[in-house]
Amino acid sequence: LFFKLPSDSLKYLGWCDIEEHDVRGNQLRCPRVREGPSEEELFLRREEHTLKKRKQVTDTEKWQKRLQENWENCAELNLSFQDLGDLYQVENFKRILRRLIRVEKLWLVDNSLTDLSAIRLPRCRELNVNKNHFRSFKQLPKIPQIQHLSLAENNIMTLSGISDFRHTPLESLILKRNPCEFQERYRQLVFSSLPNLKMLDGIPKLPEDCSPPDIRFFYKMCTIL
Asked: How far is it, in rounded angstroms, from Cα 107 to Cα 109?
């Protein structure tokens, strides 16, 4: 467009910065939580006209904003498709994740995430992190109460670290379109590491999945005397 839309001057503001409303964080289901560019970044982009909507924030206003965000009381939250293109946006995103102490269902699809190992989600029972850039189970957040975990379309190469979920109530795991899916005896290895798992990649646990992973390998061996 060769002209600016009326909302153009608000495009870098979060809902907390817009006046005359009382919407709280736990009322949102699919919020955009990206941090806006810094004043220096806006100046370099020649978008300093947006600064007129910003003002010096006092400590009291910061505390009121924190109360308005109210992430601590979210039970279900979808933070997918955030387009975290800058480091300050990633850091703000992780700041919010650290506050999700009561979340039970969380979607973080397609956020280019690589490492959330410093995040703990103590009550999370369902986590969807499809279409991110995780390379290892060690890079996932701490999720001691997890029951359903979806990791489709990441870059997990091996099953190393999967046994960390042995002591969780994990029932369903999706690893479709990860390199580890092509590992020999993939299903047997997963179920042997997670005896309580009931479903893998949408397929229930089958009798042939229960055999020890080394038995079939032993049958393929040929001993020459």
From this structure: 6
Please report, for the chain, the start and end positions of each structural domain, with discontinuous segments joined by +: 72-209
Q: State phi, psi for 168 to the nearest 5 degrees.
A: -105, 165
Contact 114, 138 (CB under 8 A): no
Q: Is the Cβ–Cβ distance between 97 and 118 less than 8 Å?
A: no
Q: Cα separation of 54 and 74, whole Å?
A: 28
Tell me the mean pLDDT in the region 9-32. 77
The predicted model scores a pTM of: 0.80
Alpha-carbon span 59 to 63, nearest angstrom: 6
Closest CA to 190 of 182, 177, 200, 178: 200
DSSP string, 22-43: ---GGG-SS---PPPPPHHHHH
The fold adopted by the segment(s) 72-209 is 3.80.10
Assigned token pair, 198: 């009931």
Collapsing DSSP to helix, strand or coil, 142 comes out as strand
Helix, strand, coil: what percent of the chain each, to 5?
A: 35, 10, 55
CA distance 104 to 7: 34
121, pLDDT greater than 90: yes
Number of helices (H) and strands (E), helices first, in the chain?
5, 7
Amino acid at 53: K
Average pLDDT, the chain: 85
Per the CB < 8 A criterion, the answer to whether 162 and 184 are in contact is no
Query: CA 26 to CA 74: how far, in whole Å?
Result: 5
